[in-house]
Amino acid sequence: MRLSPLLFSFLSLGLALFSVAGHAVTVIDDLGRSVTLEKPAQRIVALAPHIVEMVYAVGAGDKLVGAVSYSDYPEAAKALPQVGTYKDFSVESILRLKPDVVLAWSSGNGAAKPEQLASLGLPVYYSEPKSLGGIGLALEKIGRLTGAPGAQAARQSFDDTLLALRQQYSKQTPVSVFYQVWNKPLQTLNGEHVISDVMALCGGRNIFAGAAALAPQVSVESILRANPQVIIASGMGESRPEWLDEWRSWPQLTAVAQQQLYFIPPDFIQRHTPRILMGAKMMCEQLHQARKAYAL
């Protein structure tokens, strides 16, 4: 592959990414790889909206120099220079921003382009917590990479809220749940996704926990067989999706017969950020209402 002039120039400059001042930091990312910076990062590119949000959460938002589209929280993130989408970002645009580190999303970005950045000498840190506890740990790790003084407090606040929810709800009578990401195709999440951990926190049981794919497509027939007690929908925005009520066409479903159809805004439940505890609280309250309906 022929390198563009920009890439060639970048290589020719010797990949001078770091100052010798400051202290080195080493962090193990979510792929188990060691990432070392000669000093805490001062220029960061984040390749997923949830990672952008995490950087702001630890107080290092002022160090972000680039992000992908749909990086919309907090409000300041909307003004960041964009390098493309999380699936199709521009390597050259990232190089122009001269980041000290690139924060990548292992399942969303794929491997090819982040590894291309790594091959050019850019440190790449992969972030994708698979549990609620992992989100707290991610706050701490991103804090270490960026030298953010607020990271420890952010983690402590997250952990305290998580513990309170766990103590209140996790020992309740289990309720079976179908979590619907989308309707066409009909899609859910398996037991490896952090949302299954949210269900467990709330005393719920994911009916597709054993699926092989992280976000499998499923059939109406498989849901009828599993017959969940609760159906919780996501969607694309803050409004309840109209397709959630399409389940009323299947009155034999227990969740439909007992009117246990709920909605949680995706930004509160599907992003691996502290805001997931807002979605968790909503889910816990919904499953609590379901237990009352079933007299459990």
What this model shows, in words?
The protein is an alpha/beta fold and 296 residues long. It has 2 domains: 5-155, 3-Layer(aba) Sandwich (Rossmann fold); 170-294, Rossmann fold. Helices cover 38% and strands 14% of the residues. The chain is built from 12 helices and 12 strands. The strands form 4 sheets. A 4-stranded parallel beta sheet has the order 4-3-5-6, sandwiched between helices. It has a 4-stranded parallel beta sheet with strand order 10-7-11-12. A two-stranded antiparallel ribbon has the order 1-2. A hairpin with a 5-residue loop joins strand 1 (25-28) and strand 2 (34-37). Helix 6 runs antiparallel to helix 7 (151-169) and helix 7 runs parallel beside helix 12. The longest helix is centred in the middle third of the chain and has 19 residues, at 151-169. It starts with a helix and ends with a helix.
> What structural category arises from helix and sheet content?
alpha/beta
Summarize the main sheet.
4 strands, parallel
User: Strand content of the residues, in percent?
Assistant: 5-15%
Helix content: 25-40%
Kindly provide the name of the CATH class of the largest domain. Answer: Alpha Beta
Number of strands: 12
What order do the strands of the largest sheet run in, or round the barrel if closed?
Answer: 4-3-5-6
Number of domains: 2
